[in-house]
Amino acid sequence: MSAVRTVLGDVRPEQLGVCDAHDHLFLRSPQLPGQELNDASAARAELAAFRAVGGGSVVQWTPYGMGRRAADLPALSRTAGVHLVCATGLHQAAHYTPELLEEVRGRLAEVFVSELTEGIGTSGVRAGLIKVAGGFHALDEHARWTMRAAAEAHHATGATIAVHLEHGTGALDVLDLLCGRLGVEPGRVVLGHLNRSPDPVIQRQAAEAGAYLAFDGPSRAHHATDWRMPDAVRALADAGHGDRLLLGGDTVVAGARSVDGGPGMPYLLRRVRPRLALELGEELVDRVLTENPGRAFAADWR
Ligand SMILES: [Zn+2]
Q1: How far is C-alpha 115 from the geometric centre of its chain's CA atoms?
Q2: How many angstroms does the Cα of residue 251 sit away from the middle of ligand 1?
Q3: 279, containing H or E segment
Q4: How far is the CA of 252 from the centre of ligand 1 (A)?
Q5: What is the CA(194)–ligand 1 centre distance, in A?
Q6: Rounded to an integer, what distance in angstroms lies between the CA atom of residue 265 and that of residue 196?
Q7: What is the band of 226 on the pLDDT scale with cuts at 50, 70, 90?
Q8: Coiled coil: which residue ranges (predicted)?
């Protein structure tokens, strides 16, 4: 049976409730020195704030080696009453030391499968998705390596593959590789950051292929493109792709948390939801927040 793999175990897709389909409670990268999400009490407060505005679940896209603090997640989920899904996978090379990359070379798919089926480290917490990353308008050797491993782990487990698109670009390159060459069904792929490169034709092509499109940037500043998001989402819905849409906050640095004065997770429900309701109607926005994530992240686990 199809289930979403949360940090507290597998649940039916419809149990997710209102879902933030791309966000982070914990994240650490050499690219973001001094801005780490590494504070469990701030994470607890952020989840409580999300719960207070009606949030029911958060899908965390922080992959391997970026400070996931997997062992802390079950207690956070229980305390807040919010379902949490966490990720395995690998980000772009720039987010790691050469030593860490060397350590997983040759066994990356194995690491992903083990985190999805047995657990992350000694935490006993299983990952529920595989996160990888593309590059700017292209895929370098690191991206192709991680995507091959992701596809292998997907075929072994059934897990969904979620992709960070660099500045929202490269969607079709990613689909060509993952789906065209590596045999992943497009409906098992979630493309992230589509709003950062608001080309309506590319977005429609990705949706027509069957991939999920995550519009997931309100916790970050993308001044040039943020205001186009409602139009982009409406264009996709008008073309019949309302069932391919996902929404997320993507809180990546401490200052973006609502409890630290930023928009954080609650903003998705406080402001994005009513704004999109003006474009799509409340009924479709509700389905995008409650039904699409369950379908996108549920798997027939093997
Ligand atoms: Zn993210």
Answers
A1: 17
A2: 7
A3: helix 273-280
A4: 6
A5: 12
A6: 19
A7: confident
A8: none
Given pLDDT bands bounded at 50, 70 and 90, which one contains residue 227?
A: confident
Distance (Å) of CA 179 to CA 35, 133, 213, 216, 237? 35, 15, 15, 23, 23
Per-position DSSP letters for 102-133, written without gaps between them: HHHTT-HHHHHHHHHHT-STTS-PPP-EEEEE
pLDDT-derived band at 223, boundaries 50, 70, 90: confident
Query: What are the residues whose beta carbon lies below 5 Å from ligand 1 (ion)?
Result: 61, 250
The pTM (predicted TM-score) of the whole model is 0.97
Please enumerate in sequence order all residues whose Cβ is within 8 A of that of 140, keeping only pairs 6 or more positions apart, or say none.
none
* Per-residue pLDDT reduced to its tens digit, 79-115: 999 999 999 999 999 999 999 999 999 999 999 999 9
Q: How far is the CA of 42 from the centre of ligand 1 (A)?
A: 18
Ligand 1 center–CA 63 separation, angstroms: 9
Domain boundaries, the chain: 25-255+277-297
Q: Report the distance separating Cα 220 and Cα 86, nearest Å.
A: 20
> How far is the centre of ligand 1, averaged over its atoms, from the C-alpha of 263 (Å)?
15
- Indicate the CATH number of 25-255+277-297 among 3.40.50.1480, 3.20.20.140, 1.20.1250.20, 3.40.50.11320: 3.20.20.140
CA of 241 to the centre of ligand 1 (A): 23
Do the Cβ atoms of 114 and 74 come closer than 8 Å? no
Burial of 243 (0-12, 13-18, 19+ CB in 10 A): middle
Taking the centre of ligand 1 as the mean of its atom positions, its distance from the CA of residue 106, in whole angstroms, is 26
